[in-house]
Structure formats: structure tokens, C-alpha cells
Amino acid sequence: MPSIFPISLGCPKNLTDTEEMLGILQARGYRIATGDPPADIALINTCAFIGDAVKESYAEIEKLLAMKKQGYFGRVIVAGCLVQREKAKLLKKYPEIDSIIGVGSAKNIVEVVDSGRDRACPVSTAIPRVLTRQEYRFPATLPHSAYLKIADGCNNSCAFCTIPRLRGGYRSKPINDIIQEAECLVAGGVREVSLVAQDTTSYGIDLYSEYRLADLLKALTGVQGLEWIRLMYAYPERVTPEIVQVMAENNKICHYLDMPLQHVSDKVLARMGRESTEKLIKQKIKLLRKFLPDIALRTNFIVGYPGESKTDFAKLKDFVEEYEFSKVGIFAYSREKGTKAAGLTGHLPKAVREDRCAELTEVQSRVIDRKNKKMIGKSVKVLMDMPSFGRTQYEAPDIDGGVNVTPRLTPGAFADVKITGADGYILKAEILT
């Protein structure tokens, strides 16, 4: 059977789509090439969330098409958000592309691959109305850690975001399907799952007419062999006392929450189309820290948003300094065609946006230096990703820092260590004997 050379760009949610497509292809007899080219088919799953991601996707496609011309690949198939965003432009610009497949059609990958150069394949960009269990998966992460997608699409109306247009409305997987996926992952050696969706806290609203994330978390704690459950992409307005209570009462759930806030100024939040306010955000943080005093809070902020004044930005800096987040992603606003934000007044020059990004990054650097110094001398549990590098429950895979551990240990093992030093987001530790 033909061999497949995969490339996955963008977020962990996109990676789960790649894993599903590869798993289905492998089950049908295709060989997944884990080394360097050549291969019969190159399959690239693209990202198109912001302009820089679009540029990266186009650059990677051009590389693959050049390699195809040189004989490294027989065919090139393009999948993912770029197909959804710019299908017509993509096919016109690159007639050498053999097939395309959109974000909701992973389960149809064999049909697309088998169709050869039939780029008009009718399943290529359809978005399904329901989200079902991933029956096949080819792991693209470390053997002991996996991302578990619990929903797709989004019903929020953030003015800066293209996701609802690219991925459609919110669609939850049934709880039983998610539990079965988790059990299959554990059977394959996974000990940590990170729950992902565009908005995990909206889980269940479409299936059950109510938010059911707390129920899902409870159900996942019953999966034998699953050690860590990590919650990503939470919206602050839907972080309920029930969710916090479940996190506090179950030691399998990491004391960690990824909760993108985007800003703290009420004026900017309103222009962003966010439902949260400064008061609500601060209330949620206090609630989380009351019941989970050691919780690691990760968040994202957009700086230089249209209409962001010097006063708004100063408020954001003061907020980051005071509330001491464990991890922060900071992004200069990117004007995206087709979004509500693109039509707003008050767009700021690129230099101002970039300066504010650097300025807030410096604030967070001071915060993390203070926080990590407090970790020195503490004993913590780590999950080893590599022989000399692991993570505590306070670090998510891929996006956060971790712990350099001595002496070396087996990847996938848990160990108790003592923190001996810190350098930015990287801690140093020795194994406790």
C-alpha cells in the first residue's frame, strides 16, 4: 500500500484531526512514514487562524509541491483550516495540488486519498452536524500523553476570531464516546490527557441543553490507568463553582486551567465581543484560588486591539503584575479579513502593537521569576517526557515549560523530585530517594 508523509500545523485540536486521518489510513493498509521523505503521498493539515498561520501554511505547501516536482512525493493532499478559508484561491494558485479535505471530513480521508486527482471530491469541505468518536488514531504525541478533543466548532462571537466561520457551530461528543476514547488511549500507554475544544466550558450545551463539563470530568476520573486530566480552553464566564469543586475533589484532575482572557479592560472586552468583564474575571480567579490555592493559571492576551488606549493597556499591565499568572501567551492583534474587528475604528500601527507585546512580555517575565523562586525547595511529582526532562501537573505539554531532572529516568514514568533552581519557565530538580 502507498506510504503517507504527514505534516500537522497549528493547534492541538488540529493535531487530533491529523491523528484521526492517519489512524483511518493506517487501518486501511496505508503506511505512515515517520521518517524523512520520500513517500507516495504528502498529507498536510493546515492552520489558517490568523494571517501568520496562513502564510506558514502556504509556505509549507509550496515546499511540498517543490519536493513533489523533484520526485520525493507522488501526490500532495491539503487538509484543514486553509482549505476551509480559501478553497477557491488555494486550488487556483496551486493546480499541482492533487486533493483537498476540509476540517470536518477527517472520516472521509480514505475516499479523498483514493479519489486520486479528483479535486472536486464532494466530501472535501463539508462540516458534519454531529461529532462522533474517533475510532482510529495514529499517535502524533509522546506515547504517555495525548490530546482528547471533546467538542468542535464555536458558538461564541469574538469579533477578532475566524473559528466559527472555519469550523462551524459548537458540536459536543457524547460523554460515552469520550470515555471510550480515553480508555483506548490508556490501553495504548497514555497516562495524561489534555481536554481540548474551541471552548471546553460549553461542553454539552448542544447535546444535553445544559453545560455538562463537570459531569464529563467526573466520568473521566473513573477511567482506570488515567493519571492526569488537564483542562484547556476554558471561558471564564462558564467556569462554574461545580467545575471548580470537581477539580478540587479529584486528584486525577491537574491543578491547572488554561483560561484565555484576551484583555481586562471592559471597553476592550466589549469591542472584542467577549461576554466577560473585569469584575467577572477577577471573581473567577479568586474562586479558583480559594478552592485550589496552588492552581497554575494559563491565559492569553491580545494587545494593540483596535481602540486600545494607553489607559487600557496600563490596566492590563497592572492586572498581569498583580494576579501573577503561571503562564501567559501574548499576541499582537492581527487584522483578519471577514471578522467584525477588521471593520472597527481605531486600528493601531504595527509598531505600537509590537511594542506593547514586548512590554507586556517583560511584565510577565518578572512575574514568572518571582513565582518560580518560590518553587525552589518544594517537592513535586513530575511526568517524564524525556530521560532528563519532565513536567509537573502545573505544565501542559508542548506550550509550557517543565523541569530538568537529574539523574535520568525512563520517559513516561512518574517521579517525586525536589526543585533546586529556576531559569524562566524551566525548573531544575533532583530525584527524591
UniProtKB/TrEMBL annotation:
Residues 373-433 form the TRAM domain. Residues 140-371 form the Radical SAM core domain. InterPro entries: Elp3/MiaA/NifB-like_rSAM, Methylthiotransferase, Methylthiotransferase_CS, Methylthiotransferase_N, Methylthiotransferase_N_sf, NA-bd_OB-fold, Ribosomal_uS12_MeSTrfase_RimO, rSAM. Residues 2-118 form the MTTase N-terminal domain. This is Ribosomal protein uS12 methylthiotransferase RimO. The lineage of its organism: Bacteria, Bacillati, Candidatus Margulisiibacteriota, Candidatus Termititenacia, Candidatus Termititenacales. Belongs to the methylthiotransferase family. RimO subfamily. GO terms for biological process: tRNA methylthiolation. Pfam families: Radical_SAM, TRAM_2, UPF0004. [4Fe-4S] cluster 1 binds at residues 11, 47, 81. Binds 2 [4Fe-4S] clusters. One cluster is coordinated with 3 cysteines and an exchangeable S-adenosyl-L-methionine. GO terms for cellular component: cytosol; ribosome. It comes from the Bacteria.
